[in-house]
Amino acid sequence: MKAAIYQGVREIRVEDVPEPKPGPGEVKVKVKYCGICGSDLHEYQHGLFPESPFGHEACGEIVEVGSGVKGHHVGDRVIPLNKGAYAQYMVCPQERLLKIPPSMSWEQAATVEPLSVAAYSIEKADLKPGVTALITGAGPVGLMTILGLKAVGVGTIYVTEVSEMRRKKAEEMGATRTCNPLNARVSSWIKELTSGRGVDIAFESVGMEASLKDCLTSVRTQGKVIVQGIFTDRVPIHMLGFVTRETIMMGTNSANPPLAMSWIEKKGVKPEMMVTKTIPLEKISEGFEILTRKIKEEIKILVEP
Ligand SMILES: [Zn+2]
After folding, report:
1. At 119, which CATH number?
2. 181: left (phi over 0), alpha (psi -120 to 50) or beta
3. How close is the Cα of 199 to the center of ligand 1, in Å?
4. Pairing with 54, which of 14, 44, 114, 294 sits 20 to 30 Å away (CA)?
């Protein structure tokens, strides 16, 4: 079978490798789609974090079950919560499988994982009804946070994003107002929109100093900042403002797939709206190059092995 093999920084090669065999308690999945994730891009540019195959936003069909597998059958559509999905086939332990309901499309199934990252952050944020929110960054994580906030009833969502294409997407997905942080002072923009008060909560979704500062200076006194971006650089923070305004800051780095699935099924959330391109496995390097360019022309790219 064909699989994309990580060779080092900015180098991925599609090679012929043996098909994996499901061990006891595992199933073999024929991969339909695997989305390119921000964490994959991070590894592509800076090196692999753990020594494991990458590609984890997959969906597909079970083609073989190992011994001792219960409740999963050949032909079932599943989301395998496992790595190594930039390949025609992958194996996954049965306890890491999510069944795809009949009403859910393949594109939706392929975007459950990124939505579930936002679902986890939003659950951790423990929001009260009627809050106002700021999201810095309208990449996949920021966009999924818009959808999640709408699903839990947050009506006022401000978004900052440098790319015009992504700002448009944010508006399409339900942002109340957007702005380009390169052309405006975000904290002043937010103060104007909130009668000087600041937002109740801000979601840092970029992983950069400027966007974190925008969050910290835009929340109200005793407001919350949820940090979900991946930072490569150290960030100096103006601690006096943080202390005097009693800001609550929390990092999040996990996922809640069942909550994301329930949003799609019961609240009509459409995470597939962020898919802007689908490419064959042979072109995976092209997908990584497009997504690591300075000017972002795509949002979520699905790889179809
Ligand atoms: Zn991901």
Report:
1. 3.40.50.720
2. alpha
3. 27
4. 294
Distance 301 CA to ligand 1 centre (A): 12
Burial of 122 (0-12, 13-18, 19+ CB in 10 A): buried
What's the maximum distance between 2 C-alpha atoms anywhere in the chain? Answer: 63
Question: Does 140 reside within a domain?
Answer: yes
Cα(56) to ligand 1 centroid in Å equals 6
Report CA(255)–ligand 1 centroid distance (Å).
9
What's the pLDDT tens digit per position in 203-246? Answer: 999 999 999 999 999 999 999 999 999 898 999 998 999 999 99
**Residues in the chain, total:** 305
CA of 27 to the centre of ligand 1 (A): 21
Task: For residue range 158-182, list pLDDT tens digits in order.
Answer: 999 999 999 999 999 999 999 999 9
- Distance (angstroms) between ligand 1 centre and the Cα of 111 equals 9
- Between the CA of 299 and the centroid of ligand 1 the distance, in Å, is 13
Residue 163 lies in a domain: yes
How far apart are the CA of 218 and the centre of ligand 1, in A? Answer: 27
Per the structure, the complete domain to which residue 192 belongs is given by 115-251
Kindly give the parts of the chain with pLDDT less than 50. none
Cβ contact 280:273 at 8 Å: no
Q: Which pLDDT value is given to residue 38?
A: 87
Asked whether the CA dihedral 240, 245, 246, 250 is positive or negative, the reply is: negative
